């Protein structure tokens, strides 16, 4: 069970401050509320890179990848984390919450 969340930094915060806050404040808060998922990665967009095709149309700053053993583990984690009001208060410090999108995905991996 894997979830990808597309997150946008709030106006008035630099990309570096966004990353710093996410990593040093938000992640510890989340991990204090529930056990870490088996996968918990943040993939930060590198703005201004020549390989970013149509970068002006990219409307997120990080893709957060999270994975659980199964749907029950996912739902238990979501209940524990999302029911705590501290999460939304903290997210308002660094995220444009209105622009958050999340999708469940089905991974297929090809290894060389």
Q: What would you say this structure looks like, in words?
A:
This protein has 112 residues and is α+β, with helices and mostly antiparallel strands. Helices cover 34% and strands 21% of the residues. The protein has three helices and four strands. It has helices spanning 15-33, 71-82, 85-91; strands at 2-7, 39-44, 62-67, 101-105. It has a four-stranded antiparallel beta sheet with strand order 2-3-1-4, with no helix packed on it. It is globular. The model has no long low-confidence stretch (mean pLDDT 94).
Q: Helices and strands in order, then pairings?
A:
Layout: E1 2-7, H1 15-33, E2 39-44, E3 62-67, H2 71-82, H3 85-91, E4 101-105
Antiparallel strand pairs: 1-3, 1-4, 2-3
